[in-house]
Amino acid sequence: MIPKPAARPAPVRPDGLTPFLEAIGHAILAVDRRGRVARSNLAARALLLGPGARLDGVRLDAIFDPLPEELRPDALLRLTGETGRRFESRVRTPTGPRAVRGWAAPLKDGRRPPLVLLELEDMTEHRREQELAEWKAVELARSNAELEQF
Prior knowledge:
Layout: H1 17-23, E1 27-31, E2 37-40, H2 42-48, H3 60-63, H4 73-78, E3 85-91, E4 98-106, E5 116-122, H5 124-149
Antiparallel strand pairs: 1-2, 1-5, 3-4, 4-5
C-alpha cells in the first residue's frame, strides 16, 4: 500500500502543466530529481490509489516494487536533453500489485533541475491475455497430438 505523504503538498500553482497532465488519458507522474511525485493526473491517481487520492510528495520507491534502476534518483539526475528511458516494473495498488511498462523523459519547462515525466501503462490485463493465449496454444498442440494418435 502506498503511504500517504507526511506533509501537505504545496498548493498547485496555476500553470500550464496541470491542465496538460489532466488532459492525457495515460497515467502520468511529474517527478522531481529526488524521486518524489510533484504532480499526477487523474489516470495515475486512479491506477495507484483511487480517483480522489493525492500522490504529491510520495516517493517513487513507495509506488514501485521494485523501483526500476531507471527511476532511482541518481539515474533521474542523468536524464538530460532528448533522452528518455523505458522501464518495466510493478506498482503497489489497493487491489494488489499491477504490472506496468513506462517511459521516463525530462520535461523542459524552464525549471532547474527539470521535472521528469513518467508515463505508465498498466500491463496486467495484457499479460493475463498473453498467458491465456500461450496456455491455449499448448492445449491445442496437446489435443492435436492426441487426435493424430487415432
